[in-house]
Amino acid sequence: MRLFFNQTSPYARKVRVSIHELGLSEAIQFVEVDPWPELHHFTDITPLSKVPALVLANGTLVTESDTIGQALHGLTIGSQLIPNEEPARHLCLGRAALYQGLIDATFICAIEGRRPSELRWADWVARQERAIARTLSSIEARFDLDDRRFDLGDIGLACALDYIDFRAGHLSWRSERPRLAGWFERARVRPSMIATRPC
Ligand SMILES: N[C@@H](CCC(=O)N[C@@H](CS)C(=O)NCC(=O)O)C(=O)O
Prior knowledge:
Layout: E1 2-5, H1 10-22, E2 29-32, H2 40-43, E3 53-55, E4 61-63, H3 65-75, H4 88-114, H5 122-142, H6 152-167, H7 178-187, H8 191-195
Parallel strand pairs: 1-2
Antiparallel strand pairs: 1-3, 3-4
Helix pairs in contact: 1-3, 1-6, 4-5, 4-6
């Protein structure tokens, strides 16, 4: 199997952390690519020119970080990445989807920041930042943060929080969310998180 990834992509990081947690690192060839120039050697692999992209041993292309996570779970005997039973399974996938939204909102802000200043849309960035703040507060107030578990949802949350720190550190989210901050302090030092830090 080959995983096409980029060091700073939070989406690719979720997959890299999952691979580490599943003990699959030796079974996968990691190929670092820059998706932005739409080079043929990458668009021939995935026409979307986005990372992450996983190519299975039989040549099948799998795109979208959480779909790749589900594929890896299905390929790994004894995987704890996604519960197999309901309702735990859809609760895990639901958390993963919400945390993907956190990454999406932060990614939008980062992309806006790369535009020439006269083309930046401040209201759009402010809307994303409000969504991030509301979502983090909702996790703080209501979500089950269980240190005994590090499943697809938890991986998404840890990667989302690290990405917020990396690209939107000015949001200073910890002070009003001590429970989430405590959970993240423990999650961010897991070997899988340390091994995949953006450099
Ligand atoms: N929803 C996708 C998002 C993937 C994505 O947007 N990746 C970015 C890098 S962080 C990318 O490759 N962008 C290139 C482009 O949009 O052309 C996922 O979860 O995998």
